[in-house]
Prior knowledge:
Structural class: alpha+beta
Distance between the termini: 9 Å
Low-confidence stretches: 45-59
Strand content: 15-25%
Amino acid sequence: MSMCPACNGLTTLHITCEYCGQNVTIYGRTSDYQDDYSAYEEYDVTSAQSIQTQSTQTESEGCTHYVGCENCRTSYTYSFIEVDYNT
């Protein structure tokens, strides 16, 4: 089963800003911002919708999140590689 490390809190993530090099804040999956109820839907449902609605998004690109930098006030998307966690 593939899981996003950001969605599931599987590791401490340290991502630096593309522009100034400071740590960024992870705001959540881009699919959570599609409509008022997206954040409350099952992960598989919103992931499938996200892949269908974003023509550049493919399953191999991972789980796309919004991230933002408090220092330089920029925001952009960042794709996390989903890791296979078999128990």
